[in-house]
Amino acid sequence: MQTHYPVPTGPNSEQKSFLPLTLIEVSHAQKLELLERSSAASQEALPRTQEMLARLREFQPSMAQMFQIKDISISQAPLRLLCESSKQLQLDSTKVGSYIALSYCWHGPDWIVADCLGRPETGWPISTAMVHGLLNQRESSDEGVWIDQCCINQRDPLDKQLIIGSMDLIYRSARKVVVLLEDVSISEAEEVLLQEVRVQWKPQKEDLDVLARILIRILSARWFQRAWCSHELQLSNDVVLLLPAENNPVELSTDDVEELYSVTKNYIERDEDLGPLMVDGVYRSYDFFTRPLEQKVGLRGRSLICEFSDIFQLACSIQSDILGIAINISGLQVYFTGQIRSPNECRWFLAMVALSAGDATVLGGADEVLRVEDLPGTPSWLNWVNDSENIMTRVGYSKLQDPTCIKSIDQYQITLDLLDLTYSDFRVPSCKSFRWAHSLVGLLSKADFNDFGDQPYWMSPGLDPIEASAARRLTVEILACSFECGFDWMVKQMSSAPNLAENVQGSMGDFESTFWLMLEESVLIENSPESSYLDQLDNNNKDLVLLYLYFVLFESLFGYGRILLLAATARASPGEHNQVPVQEDDQNLTQCMCLDIGSGNKALVAVSSGIVEQGVPSMPVALSNGSCAGIRRLWFIDSSPDDEDNVKILIGKYYMFTLMPIEENAKVIKRRDQIIRQRM
């Protein structure tokens, strides 16, 4: 049975006239043709998906039974599109060359939809003006339109399950995804200003306030807070935003939003009328919007568990939907057939999916303990990840060194191989290394960064004095430890990660020569033999030293220094800026030390004061490769003699940085089949 959608008459006489639309279900052959490009990508992902399922069966056989390969869903899921009624609507002869898809937020039962047709399943779920704006986005009158409320049978649970399982294909195959921000309004004067500024994006100073307020309204829209909207954005190939205006909707491209942000960012940071929470909200929404765009062009590659964690920060009332959204975004070709009882259980499922897919990040999580069944006295071994686990993605997300080194997993314990670092040496840097570090930080404090695209995190204008002081202090510690490890060590770090070195090189710009002069001046102050050592470095090694220091100090989004500084400042200033909950035993994570791990390799570690004396430092073999350098892979295990046989209690996880692989040697001993539980 076909449903007809009359196009409402708009209030503006200049709006185009459209023929009524009819909801049709395309033939199976037509569906395969429309979804061909996305289906091919899904087929390419099948081997990775099958490998993930095989590991999941080893880790959690009962859980693996709740996932099915998605091609079953694709073959059964119908594809319905809104098409103009002038078409021949016989099922076999209908021909739709392409379609656009809608991304929007439903506002509630009182929201006024087109022609006041009532609830979304009986008519348009968007306003009259937006219906016209949406239809104007079609290439021609032959192009179809996909809207979830109209194209999914909302009364049929099986229909919803099958189509939700195929929504990655639907959005990836759409020629364009049209985002409606119906809770944002643009005045006529603002519309004129946007059109004028868009020509060159060099607004007058007096217009910055207006443009900043426009951007804040855009990024405060409800659409930026919804998990399903994130799903639709991340799967789209081309995006356009439509905003209500007095006449016709205002159209903004993703480039327009990025340019609007770039010209108003500094103004927003300096606006005293905006509280820190408002500014943080703008940053989060902008990051939500641009992150998938950057991933599409290869600027970012993040771990699965961090992607899953992002979904949990957005609004979605149904836990199984969160699971489906996260899996769709991951590219894994499975859909979920089970039931989920709680948010923690959903996190548990996603953690196991990520780990089975080879993502080691979940092993380094240090946020809340996942009490899956919420039983007293039985904490899970597993911690969820927090914001500071958005780790060094330019190295590549943290990958399992060898999945077979994990023997078994349940909700309460994990059995795996450990590298025991008991014989390794922890030490603080020498006074000489500290003096070099203080000198370099002092020189950086006097530098003018206006002509460069980055600056040290501890110099960010958004930091309050307490944060800035803690950040600067830890920066000195990181630098001092780096100097203590030696310039040769810095060379080895960057030469072992050529992709990272290449990316950092691309970020440095014109600052390279200035930074090298600062480094030389810092070392020359001591008038030490190391100053002549710098002169003797060949150009390649000199570049690698420079890249390492730049990575630690300036890579505010990706660098190791940023990770440690986030960890330290979040604990030094537990006020409204602190958005990252931490464990009680992790409150003093402020000290950076050097660690000799043998075989000519050293590492930087960030640990709480006194933790070295409390437990045995260890590392899962699964985290011993360089890709895991930015997560909490240094585990301290309780050494109490009353532990059960082969059962060890985890008392803390900490950062340990070296890009070189960590192997068994005289100072690093492998312990097999260790059972790890969480401290109660």
Automatic annotation (TrEMBL):
What the entry lists under InterPro entries is as follows: HET (IPR010730), HetReg/Transcr_Mod (IPR052895)
Heterokaryon incompatibility domain location is: 99-232
The UniProt keywords, alphabetically, are:
Membrane, Transmembrane, Transmembrane helix
Transmembrane feature ranges: 545-565
Q: Which domain of life is it from?
A: Eukaryota
Q: Does the keyword Transmembrane apply?
A: yes
- Protein's recorded name: Heterokaryon incompatibility domain-containing protein
Q: Write down the species.
A: Cladonia borealis
